[in-house]
Every structure is written in structure tokens, then in C-alpha cells.
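Researcher: Quick test of sequence recovery. C-alpha cells follow.
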């Protein structure tokens, strides 16, 4: 079997634009990806020849064999330098992993995400215009406030990129917005992958450099806030990584689940009616309702995962169990791709996999329910925090009058490659 080991820069510009366009189109049309995944589940040997795993058992198997299938596949798309997600296990990986766990332990979700969702919803209702941008006026802020403890007392300095007195405490919202734009394109490159056009890659690199420079100026306050005495390069690597990995992916996931929910009018109406019956403050305090919304968040993410595909490097010759009669050979130096979206719809592991079913009993396959966060040892360490934040965000939206995409004045959703930049909404 021949696995692709192409170098992205070797692609002629036309072929790159075409393949990137196709990649973005597939990202937006997950039903097509799912149909492709169903074919590969049926004929796993075909997938094996292309270096693709689609069955739940195969995807799980690759994700748990962390030494044979390496996360370094991400490294080429990390434009602001190395970080945990693209590293192989070792002392640096272990230290960075401990640090991320310690920083995540300082988060206070759902309290912070509830509070910001309530504040933003109140402001949106007060505006009375009935139109707003889901990403720029809402999700960005809910996630930003939930993530503040990651940098603790140094948040102002990080956002301002400065240690002056004016960067202490709460800094201007304009600067906060600028910071969020910068990290968005850095994270965007991880999503866009090596097919991204060179222009996009250059923009991501410029934002990556700016993020590094910003963190470099404030690594003192960050080290103090974290209570660590490590070398400043360790603080910088972790601070840069945490900045871009935490916020944009969660915001994008929020936009994706709202997009999916609005396409399911009946499900949306049922949730709204439950929220309407509970009213304020019940929607925020009723544990049963929160559980229902949380289950919806997970099921909506299954239909619209932000990472429908994951890649792995193959450091040395090995084999992959695709589910076919014979294992697929994976030559060292190549890559494999995992269609996690296909695995999450594998009927042999997920009962009634094609149905939208938030309260499905996953039985012994419960861990698969979280496959949009990866699987096993390398699974997203912020999984539960992110789900809580998105639950808060969705509860807030359910307290608004009925929402729809604001079509009519141009496109409601503005895309930038696989990223959604804006999502204009209207209440009816
Ligand atoms: C809805 C939001 C999020 C989604 C869908 C998500 C998804 C993922 C996925 C799929 C992976 C595994 C990638 C792989 O195996 O190749 C991952 C890893 C990771 N995520 Fe998240 N993530 C989210 C939010 C966050 C947040 C808020 C943080 C903040 C700290 C974070 C930090 C990380 C880190 C550090 C890793 C690397 C873990 C490792 O390699 O050991 N993620 N995430």
C-alpha cells in the first residue's frame, strides 16, 4: 500500500486551491462526509489502501496506539510554535500536560460561563433590534470569560500584550477583540491543515508571530499568575499554546451546534418550550434541564464535529486494523487519516446511529460519545469544561425569542476557509 507523503509546497497553486476548496466544502457539508464514511465502513480495505480508517473499532485502535500513530501530524500546522497537541510523549509533553491540567482546574465553569451568557443575553435583549452576530456578539465573549482563569491575574497583560499599569485588570473590549482575532487565525491553520492556500498560511503565520511577540512581552506576569518558576521558554510555549487552543475551537463548536440546531426545527422548538416553561431563573438552576441541554450539545456536536477528521504521522512501518480481512500496511514516514465522523455514525457501535437522539443509551460504547474530542490518552483535556461552556451558551440562547439565520441581506454565515467568521441571527 502506498500512503501519501506529499509535501504541501510541492502542490501546484491551482491544485492546492481546488483541493482546499473541496476540503472546505466537505467540512461544511458533513452529510457528504458521512456518506463517504459509510462507504469506507462498508469497504474498509479500500480505506486501508488510501490510509483512511472509518470504522469505530479502527479509529479507536489507531487513537490508542499513540507510539505507532503520532500526534506530530499536527506540528506542520502549528504556526506559533510547538505545543502539547503536536508533541510525542516525553518529559516536555508530561510537564506541559501537568500544566494544562493545573490551569484547567482553576476554571470555574459553569458559574463563569452562565454569568457571561446571562450578561450578554440581557445586553442583546436590551438592544431590542432583534438582530445580532452569534459569534462576535455572543459566543466569543462567553468563551473568553469562561477561559479567563487560564491566565488569571495576567489576563489583562496578555490581552493588551503589555505589562503597563493600564494592562492590569479589565482592559478595553476593543483590545480583547483584537486578541481574539489574532488567536482565531492561528487555530484556523490547525483546522485548515496543509491544504490551506499559501495566502491563508501566511496570514496565520503573521498572527502566530504576533501572538508569540505578545506573550514574550508578558511572560513575567504569566509566570507569576501561574506560580511557576520554569524557564521563560516553557512559560511562553504553554501560554502561546493555551491561548490559541482554548478559545477559537470552542467558539467555532458553539457556532456549529447552533447551526445544526436551527436546521432541526422540531428539536429546537421542544427545547425552547422546555426553557419557556421553566422561565428565569429556572433555566439556569434546574439540574434536569441542564442535563437535557448538555445531552443536546453532545448530540449536535456529533452531527457537526469541528474536527471531522484527525491525522496521525506514522513514524515507522506498522499495520492498521481497518476492519477488513487483512490489516493495512502503513509505511514509516507516511500519514493516516481517521474519519472520526464516520466512527461516530458506525451502526455497529452506536445504536440507531443515523438518528438525532440526545438521550441515547451508549452502553459499553459511552467513551465513543466524546470522539469529537479525540479518544484515549490524547483526548482533549478540556472536554468537560468545553461541554459545560457550550451548555451555558445554548441555555442563554434558548431564553431569547425564536432565532433564525438572518438571510436576506447577503449571506448569514461568512466563512473563511473552514472557519465561520460571522453568523448573523435574527429573532422572530
Ligand atoms: C468544543 C471545544 C473543543 C473541541 C471540540 C476540542 C477538540 C479536541 C480534539 C479533537 C483533540 C485531540 C486531537 C487529536 O487527538 O489529534 C484536542 C486536544 C487538545 N485540546 Fe481540545 N477541544 C476543545 C476545547 C479545548 C479547550 C477549551 C482547551 C483548553 C485548554 C483545549 C486544549 C486541548 C489540548 C491541550 C489538547 C492536546 C492534548 C494532548 O495531545 O495530550 N481544547 N481537543
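Model:
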Amino acid at each position: 500500500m502506498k500512503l501519501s507523503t506529499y509535501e504541501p509546497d510541492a502542490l501546484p497553486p491551482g491544485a492546492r486551491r481546488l483541493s482546499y476548496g473541496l476540503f472546505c466544502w466537505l467540512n461544511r457539508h458533513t452529510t457528504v462526509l458521512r456518506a463517504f464514511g459509510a462507504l469506507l465502513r462498508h469497504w474498509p480495505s479500500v480505506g486501508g489502501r488510501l490510509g483512511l480508517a472509518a470504522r469505530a473499532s479502527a479509529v479507536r485502535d489507531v487513537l490508542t496506539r499513540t507510539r505507532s500513530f503520532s500526534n506530530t501530524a499536527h506540528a506542520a500546522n502549528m504556526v506559533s510554535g510547538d505545543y502539547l497537541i503536536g508533541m510525542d510523549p516525553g518529559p516536555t509533553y508530561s510537564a506541559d500536560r501537568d500544566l494544562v491540567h493545573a490551569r484547567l482546574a482553576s476554571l470555574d465553569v459553569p458559574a463563569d460561563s452562565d454569568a457571561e451568557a446571562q450578561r450578554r443575553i440581557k445586553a442583546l435583549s436590551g438592544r431590542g433590534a432583534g438582530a445580532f452576530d452569534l459569534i462576535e456578539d455572543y459566543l466569543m465573549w462567553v468563551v473568553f470569560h469562561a477561559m479567563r482563569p487560564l491566565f488569571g491575574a495576567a489576563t489583562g497583560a496578555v490581552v493588551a500584550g503589555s505589562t503597563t499599569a493600564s494592562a492590569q485588570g479589565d482592559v478595553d473590549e476593543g483590545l480583547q477583540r483584537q486578541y481574539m482575532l489574532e488567536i482565531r487565525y492561528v487555530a484556523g491553520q490547525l483546522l485548515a491543515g496543509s491544504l490551506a492556500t499559501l495566502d491563508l498560511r501566511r496570514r496565520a503565520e503573521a498572527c502566530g508571530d504576533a501572538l508569540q511577540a505578545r506573550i514574550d512581552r508578558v511572560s513575567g506576569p504569566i509566570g507569576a499568575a501561574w506560580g511557576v518558576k520554569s524557564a521563560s521558554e516553557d512559560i511562553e510555549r504553554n501560554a502561546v499554546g493555551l491561548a490559541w487552543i482554548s478559545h477559537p475551537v470552542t467558539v467555532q463548536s458553539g457556532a456549529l451546534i447552533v447551526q445544526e440546531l436551527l436546521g432541526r426545527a422540531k428539536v429546537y422548538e421542544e427545547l425552547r418550550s422546555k426553557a419557556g416553561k421553566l422561565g428565569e431563573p429556572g433555566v439556569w438552576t434546574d439540574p434536569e434541564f441542564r442535563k437535557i441541554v448538555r445531552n443536546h450539545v453532545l448530540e449536535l456536536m456529533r452531527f457537526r464535529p469541528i474536527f471531522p477528521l484527525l491525522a496521525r504521522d506514522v513514524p515507522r512501518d506498522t499495520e492498521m486494523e481497518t476492519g477488513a480481512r487483512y490489516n493495512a500496511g502503513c509505511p514509516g514516514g507516511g500519514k493516516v487519516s481517521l474519519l472520526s465522523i464516520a466512527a461516530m455514525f458506525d451502526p455497529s457501535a452506536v445504536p440507531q446511529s443515523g438518528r438525532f437522539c440526545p438521550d441515547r443509551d451508549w452502553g459499553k460504547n459511552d467513551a465513543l460519545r466524546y470522539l469529537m474530542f479525540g479518544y484515549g490518552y490524547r483526548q482533549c483535556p478540556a472536554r468537560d469544561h468545553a461541554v459545560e461552556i457550550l451548555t451555558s451558551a445554548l441555555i442563554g440562547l434558548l431564553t431569547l425569542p425564536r432565532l433564525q439565520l438572518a438571510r436576506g441581506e447577503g449571506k448569514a454565515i461568512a466563512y473563511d476557509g473552514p472557519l465561520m467568521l460571522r453568523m448573523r441571527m435574527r429573532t422572530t
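The first helix runs from residue 13 to 28.
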